[in-house]
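Quick log. Single chain, no ligands specified.
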Amino acid sequence: MKISAFSRPLLSCEQSRMLETSILQDEAAEWLAMHRAGSGMARLIVQDYEELRDVPQYLRIVALIGKGHNGGDAMLACGQLLDDFPRARVALLLTCDVAEMKPLAARAYEQIKGPFEIHHVAANACVESIQALLDEVSMNEGFDICLDGLLGAAFAPPIREPMRNLIQAVNEYEKICLRASVDLPSGRGDLCDMISFQPDFTYAAGIPKDIQYAGDGSCGRVRFVDLGFFDSEPSVECSEFLLNSSVLDPLRELRPADVDKRSFGHLYIVGGSAYMPGALLMAVQAAVRSGVGLVTAFVPASLAPSLAAQVPEAMWIPWPETDKGTLDPDVIHLLLERIEKATVVLVGPGMGLDRNTERIAQDVVSLVEVPVICDADALCSRVVELAFKRKPHFGPVVLTPHMGEYMRIAKLGQADGSSATLKQFCKSYKVMTLLKGPVTRICDGETVLLGNYGGPVLSRGGSGDILAGLVGGMLAQNHTGAMEALARGVVLHGLAAERVARRYGQVAVHTTQVLDFFSEELRSRDTCKRIIK
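-> predicted structure:
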C-alpha cells in the first residue's frame, strides 16, 4: 500500500488555504463540504462524549457562533445533533447580526434556525453577564456540550469584543461537560490578548494542518473529518502524514486458505526480570493477539513456569539470571543459537535498567540480522550508537521511546517532539523511531507518520509494553513494509483504547483491557472510512 492509501498529508495553514481554494471552486462545492463537515463533527462529538458517560436523550448544547465558515460548520453540526437527538435543547450565542455573516454561514443559519434558541451577545457584555446568560439559558443546569465556532484559521489578532469576554466567560464556566472547537480553538495564537478557547476536542475538517497536531495540548484532542479532498491525490509537497484507520483494512479481510503459522512470522521477545515480570507479560499477550504466527519469549528462568501458564500460546525459553534478578548477558548464545527461526526480535520490556540489560541489547543490535525493536530498558545511548554500525544487509533497528527516553538517547536538553528534530535523529543514527505521546510520530529519517488515536486512557503503566508487543507482531508479519507495519500497530492500539474509554470511561480501567478490544475494532461493521480521527 502507498502511504497515501492510509494517511492524509499534514499541511501548513497557507498550503491548506491554497489547496481548499483549488478544490472548492464554487459556492455549491463549498456548501456541500460544509454540510459534510457539520454532520461528521456531530457524529464524532457524540462518540467522544461517550468517554464521559452515556449520551442523554435530553442533550443540552450551546454553540458560540461567529460570522465565518466556522460558525456555519458549528450550526450545521448542531442541526445534525438535533436530528439525531430530537429531545435535545440547542442554544446559539451569536456575536453578530445575521446580515454580517458570510453567505454560507448565513445560509446555514437560515436552514437550521427554527428549533434553536437564539441569543445575541451584546458588544458591551461583560464576563459576569455572559455567565448569567449561560445560567439562564441552561436553567442553572449547565451544558453537556459547548461548540466553539467563533474564529477560524484565518483569524488575525487582536480578539475583538464581545468575543474576548465570551471566550473568557465560557472558559471559566464550570458547568460544561465537553468543550469542542471547529477547526482551531478561537483565539489560538493571539499574543495580544493571551486568551483562547480551551477545548477538550478540536474537529478539523477537510485538510489536517500542522498547527493542530503540535502536541502542546492547546487544541485538546484533535479529530479529523475527512471530506474526500484527497481522493484524487492532489499534488502537494509534504513529508508528514496523518494516519487513518484504513491502514488496518488488510487485517479486516479473510486470510488466504493455503497458509499456516509460518506464513505470519515469528517474533522473539527478550525481556523481563525478577522484579518486573508484568511488562514482559503484557508485551507477550499483545504479540499473541497481533496476528503473528509464532511468539517465543526469552525470560528469567525463575519466571518461565508461571508466565507460561498465563500465556500458553507462546514458547518460553528460561534464561539464567544474575544475582540482581536480571538476564545474564553471558548466555546470549541461548538467543543466537535459535536466531535462524526469528523474523523480528523485540528486546527490552521489563528487563531492568542496568549494565546487564545494556550488554544484551548491544549484542542483539550488533549480531542479529533480522529487524530489531529496542523498547523500554534497552533504550540506551550506547545501544543506539551501535545501530549506526549495523551491516548493510541487516534489517532496521526500531526504537520505541516516550519523550523522557527520547531526550536521553537523542541527547536533548529539553523536550522536543518536532518532526524536524526526529528526522535528523533517525538520519544520524540510521534508525526508525516510534516516538510515543499524545500524538505518536513514526519516522524513518525521511517521512513522519502521525498517529492521533488513543487519548488519556493510555496514560497508565503498561500501555507502552502492550504497544511494543503489538508492533513487534505487526513487523514480524511485515508483508508490505516496516513503516506500514508500525503504523498498523499504533492505529490498532489507539482505536482499541478509545473503545475501552467509550465502554468504561478513562479512569477506572485496567491497562490490559485494551487487549480485548483489538478484535472488536478489526471486526467492527461500523468502521467508517470517510470520517477518521
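Confidence is low (pLDDT under 50) at residues 528-533.
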